[in-house]
């Protein structure tokens, strides 16, 4: 399956990902510059913030406690669709992730 990244400038980039692959690592490997992942995936930086809209949001487990705190304290433009991509793994179908405007 594939991930379509919608970048802050509106352009889209699609990359293939294996089910179970970490979404943040997939973004780094695909040179999605808006995903910085400063903390390396420890849910400590929020520079891997993405928006997961419906119907894709339902493919992932709910926001965890540590993820929730980090999104609250560090993510610009948090919305109900906000997730830390380092905490998510690829489902077995195509998904779309939007990158927040603050991560130009
Ligand atoms: Fe730092 Fe996801 S990489 S919170």
Automatic annotation (TrEMBL):
Family annotation (InterPro entries): 2Fe-2S_ferredoxin-like_sf, 2Fe-2S_ferredoxin-type, Adrenodoxin-like, Adrenodoxin_Fe-S_BS, Beta-grasp_dom_sf
Is Iron one of the keywords?
yes
| 2Fe-2S ferredoxin-type domain: residues covered | 1-103
SUPFAM superfamilies to which the protein is assigned, alphabetical? 2Fe-2S ferredoxin-like
Top-level taxon of origin: Bacteria
Keywords for this protein: 2Fe-2S, Iron, Iron-sulfur, Metal-binding
Q: Name one GO biological process term.
A: P450-containing electron transport chain
GO-annotated cellular components: cytosol
Q: Which cofactor(s) does the record list?
A: [2Fe-2S] cluster
Family statement: Belongs to the adrenodoxin/putidaredoxin family.
**Record's protein name:** 2Fe-2S iron-sulfur cluster-binding protein
- Organism of derivation: Sphingomonas tagetis
């Amino acid at each position: 399956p594939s991930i379509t990244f919608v970048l802050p400038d509106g352009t889209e980039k699609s990359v293939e990902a294996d089910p179970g692959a970490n979404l943040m690592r997939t973004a780094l490997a695909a040179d999605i510059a808006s995903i910085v992942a400063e903390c390396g995936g420890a849910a400590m930086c929020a520079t891997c913030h993405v928006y997961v809209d419906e119907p894709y949001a339902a493919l992932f487990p709910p926001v965890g406690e540590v993820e929730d705190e980090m999104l609250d304290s560090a993510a610009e433009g948090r919305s109900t669709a906000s997730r830390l991509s380092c905490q998510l793994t690829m489902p077995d179908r195509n998904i779309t992730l939007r990158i927040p405007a603050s991560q130009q």
